[in-house]
Design a protein that fits this description.
Layout: H1 2-8, H2 10-29, E1 34-35, H3 46-61, H4 66-70, E2 75-79, H5 86-93, E3 98-103, E4 106-107, H6 111-125, E5 140-144, E6 157-163, H7 172-182, E7 183-194, H8 215-220, H9 233-243, E8 246-255, E9 258-264, H10 275-284, H11 290-293, H12 297-301, E10 302-311
Parallel strand pairs: 1-4, 2-3, 2-6, 3-5, 6-7
Antiparallel strand pairs: 7-10, 8-9, 8-10
């Protein structure tokens, strides 16, 4: 009841998030990196967890040919694995030489359920990755307690990927520069990025309310707390253009509140969005902070993307 009252009032919601940011900062400086973010297996249902793994692999397959020897003998970095290494295990089953998983926070997990899940995945795909029911440390490495922006293993990985993670990294420039250093020439990045507010304000306000908040205030309650960094499609276009050493494309996965079954590089009026979407923007754009007022209607309506980039030099 109290949380609902707070969420309905924008000012109270911001104050609550400032308090939460302070608590998160205190946890970090005290060396406590345990968090509940990224929990996908909390219901404890094997079938649902396997279905989720298959969905993510299918999404990756739309942008890189995972099931066509793409990962053979490759070193992979997965950012933000959450509460299991099931995607890393699938990468190993698909031929990866080793997988490193990195998380800023350690996600609470059910170890016994995790082991059952790995055994089911092993059985489903008829492989022999596991040793005594676990993924061997010679093939899987796990690091937590620091963000990707603070990693420095240069020129090591062939494939760097993430699923709805980059939007939570406030120092995204540093993170991408770090990944650029870590990726080998001819290596590939693939990141699915959710550009929405993750329910911070949209539950009781319009879905772009987070674009109306002053930059200093927004950073004050988001920097440590993994709130969305408000980097939209325009940022990723400019960032990889400025890097200059990638062949890249940005596929659109979601427009406003609608998921696209087939990812595409461009969206079209009256097919992917319509006049009511434009009318919606015209009603609210005056409340945006200046940098978001400058964006096109399509850039504001795109709420999900898949960034795929091959390093060419």
């Amino acid at each position: 009841m109290i949380k609902e009252v707070i969420k309905k009032n924008l000012l109270l919601n911001i104050l609550y998030r400032l308090f939460n940011e302070f608590k998160t900062y205190i946890k970090i400086i005290n060396g406590n990196f345990t968090y509940n973010t990224g929990q996908r297996n909390s219901e404890g249902e094997i079938e649902k967890s396997i279905a989720y793994v298959e969905k993510l692999i299918n999404w990756y397959n739309q942008v890189v040919p995972l099931e066509d020897n793409f990962l053979n003998d490759k070193k992979v970095l997965e950012i933000g694995p959450g509460d299991s290494f099931s995607i890393a295990m699938r990468f190993l089953q698909l031929g990866a030489k080793e997988v490193t998983c990195i998380d800023k926070f350690y996600c609470n997990r059910d170890i016994s359920f995790e082991k059952k899940l790995y055994l089911e995945i092993e059985k489903k795909y008829d492989t022999s990755i596991l040793e005594n029911g676990i993924i061997p440390t010679s093939k899987l490495k796990y690091e937590f307690g620091k963000g990707i922006e603070n990693s420095n293993k240069d020129n090591y990985y062939d494939f760097i990927c993430s699923m709805a993670v980059l939007e939570h990294i406030y120092e995204i420039d540093k993170a991408i520069d770090s990944m650029d250093r870590m990726l080998k020439i001819n290596g590939t990045m693939a990141h699915r990025i959710d550009l929405r507010d993750h329910g911070m304000f949209s539950e009781y306000n319009h879905p772009l309310t987070f674009l109306t908040i002053n930059e200093f205030i927004y950073k004050s309650f988001s920097y440590h707390s993994n709130n969305p960094n408000r980097k939209l499609i325009d940022y990723y276009k400019e960032k990889f253009k400025d890097l200059g050493n990638y062949e890249y494309k940005i596929l659109i996965t979601r427009v406003k509140d609608r998921n696209l079954d087939i990812f595409k590089e461009n969206i079209k009026f009256n097919i992917d969005y319509n006049k009511s979407d434009i009318d919606f923007l015209e009603e609210i754009i005056g409340d945006f902070i200046d940098k978001f007022k400058k964006l096109s209607e399509e850039e504001l309506l795109i709420t999900g993307i898949f960034l795929v980039a091959k390093k060419i030099k």
